[in-house]
UniProtKB/TrEMBL annotation:
Gene3D superfamilies: 1.10.287.3510
Listed EC numbers: 7.1.1.2
Classification via PANTHER family: NADH-UBIQUINONE OXIDOREDUCTASE CHAIN 4L, NADH-UBIQUINONE OXIDOREDUCTASE SUBUNIT ND4L
Descriptive protein name: NADH-ubiquinone oxidoreductase chain 4L
A single GO BP: ATP synthesis coupled electron transport
Compartment(s) of residence: Mitochondrion inner membrane; Mitochondrion membrane
Keywords, sorted A to Z: Electron transport, Membrane, Mitochondrion, Mitochondrion inner membrane, NAD, Respiratory chain, Translocase, Transmembrane, Transmembrane helix, Transport, Ubiquinone
Domain of life from the UniProt record: Eukaryota
Length: 95
């Protein structure tokens, strides 16, 4: 059990590290956010499995995660269509 906790904390921290290092590239930021959400989901799933197989909340969490991913991808597509790439340096924040 301790190895699972260590691996999940390692996953979460590596996702945060990638998120902070690749802050200029929107697609890599979205991928690292999804990786962080995946580590949180695995933590939640392991925790709920010890509570007696109540997995309803994990399905709600997955639903909100999918909605968050779709919103991020739609923002990415609109930025690529309007500016041509997804680097934060190429467009102004004061539209």
């Amino acid at each position: 059990m301790l190895i699972y906790k260590f691996l999940l904390v390692l996953m979460f921290l590596s996702g945060l590290l990638v998120f902070s290092l690749k802050r200029k590239h929107l697609l890599l930021m979205l991928l690292s956010l999804e990786y962080i959400v995946l580590s949180v989901y695995l933590t939640l799933f392991i925790y709920l499995s010890f509570l007696g197989n109540e997995y309803f909340f994990s399905m709600v969490f997955l639903t909100f995660t999918v909605c968050e991913g779709v919103l991020g991808l739609s923002i990415l597509v609109s930025l690529i269509r309007s500016h041509g790439n997804d680097y934060f340096q190429s467009f102004s924040t004061l539209w």
